[in-house]
Amino acid sequence: MSQPERRTAALRVRPVPATRPLQWLALGWADLWRCPLPGLLHGALAAAFGALLLTLARDRFWALAGSFSGFLLVAPVVATGLYAVSRALEQGQRPTLRTALAAWRPRDHRLVVFGLLLALAGTGWVLTSASLITRFAPAPVGSPADFLRVVVLSDHSLLFEIWLMLGSALAAPMFISSVVALPLLLDRPHSVLQAVMTSASAALASPPAMALWATLILVLTLVGMASFMVGLVVVVPWLAHASWHAYRDLVPPDEAAGAPA
Known about the structure:
Blueprint: H1 3-8, H2 20-34, H3 36-56, H4 61-78, H5 80-90, H6 97-102, H7 109-136, H8 144-152, H9 159-178, H10 181-187, H11 192-205, H12 207-226, H13 232-250
Helix pairs in contact: 2-3, 2-13, 3-4, 3-13, 4-7, 5-10, 5-13, 7-9, 9-11, 10-11, 12-13
Pfam families: DUF2189 (PF09955)
InterPro entries: DUF2189
Organism: Rubrivivax rivuli
């Protein structure tokens, strides 16, 4: 295989059983409490951001709905420092907050590029969601009750179904392309395109496991949000550490000597 082909080809992946995400959660939970400070600080920042969104858009739920779902798209970027913590724990080191913060240094343009792509996707969905609801809702949507009554339970409109379809059409490919991409970029010197292709290959190799993983991420995040954001303090780092173990499980380590970016 030529050098250009090696730089764009997906790395080897391995399929996993449908219930394997439960093991990722267990390993992620253990990592969180072996080195709690970086994770809890990340979670606190995520909870504070969610509370800020709730405050700013409390009377404009049409914007809030898109903002929170957009947050799910960019959350993997927030977790970058925690992947580094899990890697250090895996190597028998004693990581600190500095370990997590070091991952944010703008030395690696690949992480910056991928983060910007996710941020653009999240912003696009927020704008699309807000435009759709404000333009086609039969009545103003200013609160969760309004959203439930006017959009979700409406007998005279397919707005909620269309909103879900559009959100799923964006979320599914974003999840597939990013499920292991950021941990891979942190851990190995491959290109963004190679990381995305490997992520897609890993997802397509284990559809039942990926379906369960996506469901667990969604449910745990919703639980964290439903607790007035307080639950995100634990949920965000828990899922971040678990995502590192998902990457380690799905992409065999013997590919580490692959082509540089």
